[in-house]
Amino acid sequence: MVDVDVSGALPFLSEVEQDKARQQALKAFEQVKHGSGEGAEWLGWRTLLESPNDAILEQISSLAQAIREDADVFILCGIGGSYLGAKAVIEALGSFFPIKQDLEIIYAGHHMSGRYMDQLLQYISQKKEDGSPKSVYLNVVSKSGTTLETALSFRSLRKWMIDTYGEESANRIICTTSKEGGALNELIDEFGYRKFVIPDDIGGRFSVLTPVGLLPIAVAGIDIQTLFYGAVNEYQALEETPDHVIQYATTRYALHQKGKAIDVIGSFKPELHSFGNWVQQLLGESEGKDGKGMFPATTSYSTDLHSLGQMIQNGNRNMMETFINVNEATSGFKVESSEKNVDNLNYLSGKTFHEINVKAYLGTKEAHIDGGVPVVTLSIEKLNAQHVGSLIYFFELFTAIYVYCLEVNPFNQPGVEAYKKAMYQLLGKE
Ligand SMILES: O=P(O)(O)OC[C@H]1O[C@H](O)[C@H](O)[C@@H](O)[C@@H]1O
């Protein structure tokens, strides 16, 4: 289970403030549980875990295995909830550097850089060392099937696939979209592409445990059954004993009520950087409505202590901080001893980087609390598929509960349309 430590935030709140917020969080949890809150038609991310569909997990795993055996490159074409969850898990559990001979995952469709597309097409067109062409698979993910960034990139990539593989391209293109509607479904009908469905009752940012996230994650070689059942376990545990998630929601809500406007969400594990980006969308699109919500700012430590650390320590006191910790070391890499000790680092000889990093976390936490930043720490035991699955569901449930505390519908994102409207007008779309 995800562990929650709010002791670094409590000194900033009175008992009365905590009690009031706790009542609100308990009420919000009941709304989620009984589907009685606004937007309750979007609770499919819970039903998914209540009654797991092993057949779909199996189907995704075996397709992923076949792709892994044949592919050199797997392109995930999507934006927002259609790629952030997969990227988060792949980076959390994968390798920092490409492993030779291993399949390469490339992201596309998440911006409109022509230079990126140009270079991507050149890159996948390059021959392998033995002179043979690269084997490329393309997974386009779009719930609406109409998102401009994704659709534009898919148009170019699909053309490249057809030019390169001819009719066989149909076996190499996999579409993940809604059951019906959208341009993507028309292409699927016309060209017979393989299709995975995003359930109607699950919004993009809550969709990582559907084929949206699971196919790319499985293609990356991660055990999706373990990931999924890690989430199922967390779901079951929190239905029984929601104390941890309620504590975090209570604290964050009480701090927001006191004027905190930014939640700096950081980890001392750089492999969790993209996980922070996933949390950023999950919270940002859920809570940022009606003039309410905290800005979710993702940081990666200790890197950002050398850029944002000053701001967090002494800047405007309008922020709180959420640390995401992993208790167990992910490597035993050690500081070696040096005979001459010119760099004066021998006092650290024999220690692991993990041990030093833990001290950096503890020191940072202490300093930030002293500097007036309330701190909450969320911890998982190990960085593996099971615990990352737990963390995913923890954040999903937390988001729903916390946003209901604000009396906001967590599941829509009406504001995102504003820029699209203005952009399409400028582009002359009919
Ligand atoms: O999956 P799609 O329909 O392409 O949507 C991709 C993303 O774009 C939108 O503008 C939404 O704000 C996001 O919530 C969504 O995840």
Question: How would you summarize this macromolecular structure in one to three sentences?
Answer:
The protein is 49% helix and 13% strand. It is an alpha/beta fold and 430 residues long.
How would you describe the overall organization of this protein?
49% of the residues lie in helices and 13% in strands. Helix 3 (54-70) packs parallel to helix 9 and helix 12 (273-287) packs parallel to helix 15. It folds into 2 domains: 3-37 and 227-405, Rossmann fold (3-Layer(aba) Sandwich); 48-222, Glucose-6-phosphate isomerase like protein, domain 1 (Rossmann fold), CATH 3.40.50. Strand 7 (262-267), helix 12 and strand 8 form a beta-alpha-beta unit. The protein is globular. With 430 residues, the chain is α/β, with parallel strands linked by helices. It has a 5-stranded mixed β-sheet with strand order 1-10-9-7-8, sandwiched between helices. It starts with a strand and ends with a helix. It is built from 16 helices and 10 strands. It has helices at 15-34, 44-50, 54-70, 84-93, 114-125, 148-165, 169-172, 182-191, 211-219, 224-240, 243-257, 273-287, 309-314, 353-370, 385-405, 416-427; strands at 3-5, 73-77, 104-108, 136-141, 173-177, 194-197, 262-267, 295-300, 319-326, 375-380. The structure holds 6-O-phosphono-alpha-D-glucopyranose.
